[in-house]
Amino acid sequence: MNSPIQSTEDDLVxxxxxxxxxxxxxSQAQASWRIMIIDDDPDVHSATTFALGSLEIQHxxxxxxxxxxxxxxxxxxxxxxxxxxxxxxxxxxxxxAGLQLVNYIRKTLQLADVRIILRTGQPGYAxxxxxxxxxxxxxxxxxxxxxRTKLYTAVTSAIRSYEQICxxxxxxxxxxxxxxxxxxxxxxxxxxxFASGVLTQITGLLNLDTEGFVCARQNPLGDENTVNDLRIIxxxxxxxxxxxxxxxxxxxxxxxxxxxxxxxxxxSIYEADMTALYFNNAEKKDFTLFLEKGLQLNExxxxxxxxxxxxxxxxxxxxxxxxxxxxxxxxDLLTGLANRLKLLQTLNETLSSPLKEKSALSxxxxxxxxxxxxxxxxxxxxxxxYAVAQRLFNHFGTQCQLARVGSDTxxxxxxxxxxxxxxxxxxxxxxxxxxHQDVQLxxxxxxxxxxDYEGDGxxxxxxxxxxxxxxxxxxxxxxxxxTRSMGxxxxxxxxxxxxxxxxxxxxxxxxxxxxxxxxxxGKALGAEALLRWxxxxxxxxxxxxxxxxxxxxxxIVDIGEWVxxxxxxxxxxxxxxxxxxxxxxxxVSQAQFSHPLFMQSLHKALQDTKAPPEFVELEITESMAMKxxxxxxxxxxxxxxxxxxxxxxxxxxxFSSLSHLQKLDVDKLxxxxxxxxxxxxxxxxxxxxxxxxxxxQNLGLTIIAEGVENQMQANTLxxxxxxLAQGYFYAKPLTQQDLRAWxxxxxxxxxxxxxxx
Length: 757
Fold this sequence. Notes:
By secondary structure, the protein is α/β, with parallel strands linked by helices. It has 25 helices and 27 strands. The chain has an eight-stranded mixed β-barrel with strand order 19-20-22-23-24-25-26-27, surrounded by five helices. The longest helix is centred in the N-terminal third of the chain and has 39 residues.
């Protein structure tokens, strides 16, 4: 076979091909472009390697892989990597073997980057336009037109295209790795976990087998970039002994210098034998990652690493924000102790573990803290709370879970031998040093043993609070353990409170009226409006059960306004029936009376109902007069300016002083039924009622007795000088319709008696 013609002109590559054994392929250097020749003609292999053997593209030589059939090519491509160009013959085993191989390369092997140049000596088998349209090839050449220059041009163009595509693919893969690594990092909680994750991801991304650590600034607000301010927070295995130590403890000046320069310049530093990667964030909680290896990176890898470092910096912001939110969510900012939410979390864990059997929970309430806070100021109060928290922590340390669960209430959860009320109370015997002052405090404690407790954490905390309230009621400075009877009692009260609210909203509360009589004439002068509650089942709930609950829940304010308006409307209606001298007495509770809008609601009720104020009487209890005398005097004065009368109910039970009584602008005293019941045949009995009558007379007040049940009591009271009364002897509390009928009957009897006389 003749050798190809060599001349200065551009010769045809396949004009006359030498035997392929006469030429050896260029040795495959690591940095060569790999060209795969697939053709069933050995001369084509020889001619191609001869034509391209001396070619260098982008300063890299070519190396060749040979396949002499489509089947052989399939086997080679399954194991060979980094093929840049495939020079593929169309017709081999059969007329479209090359085209089928194209589909196999692209679709089965998923080799999208490799450039495929289709070559054929029989173009009729694969028309150029159809081949380019239907198959993923990059160039199409007939062997009859393929000169050396055209082959150089086609291969050079294909390699440049392959290089660009590889660069794009590498960037894409790098970005995908960065995204995946960043996503994994976002799941890390806490600065140390995050730093460990960064170290792991960096060595994985760069495919490094090296040692390293991450160090962070201990004081993020500090201005000095010194090694004394840096702490190692994560490391690879061989450097784990450095974790939680200051960087200054590291006896390697070159490493200290590199890390300090990285933090000082706020940038990464790449040296021949080691690397410092810098990460910062908005909170100045920057840190540096040290790798005990130099990174020889090309430009693209360097840019990808910078992108990753940027993502890490953003992630660092998120970690610090999450840590801060975690602290806000689970810790008290003033004392540093756990808060209610953290306590509940630990409490639930305890209740579901074997620790439950020997555990106890206590609530520690500082006695009279509100008064101290008001007297000495909130700043002093905060210092006092911090001092209490420190003393509790210094004593119980990590043995128990300490928490601040209220303004002046602390919780202690742990072994019941440690959560001992005597031990806790003893801590308050020594004064607290606050702002150079000794402050003596006492505390009241509620406790619950969790061993046989069946509720969850929130219920246990609630029941401990029930015990605390019982202790505060019974004995300040003492303690109470929760019992089942306490729980039953409080739950019944809560159920009653909800039922009362529903009854009020669905208008199941109503008023009755007990007439007030002039015992000398038997004439009805007025009535006291009394609140009643009848359930859907027809059961009456006693007022002494539901009125305290209404007061405790605050519902009494709304109920009280409704009672006031309802009674005033009834007064107006009775006046329209001719009872123009009739007076209506209405009870006012402490909560209602002290409400800032009470005077406004009273004035508006009088306006809306058009009730004459001089025939309206508000009854307040003696205990109300004792709680805040100054507020009472001021409010009573405003009420009197409206023309409304004032009566003190249950007088004699509140132990009020005469000096207070003299200051109150009231019109009437009501003798409590307990003193009326004491009136017996023996004249020595009932002396308290007699003294109240005499006191009222001396102060120029009208006196009325309640609870009069027989003629003897009525006669005795009149002997004392009390002529007004109400009680079952005259009439039971009557409904609206019954009151009107009773009054009409009373008038008829009096008229009949007058006519007979």
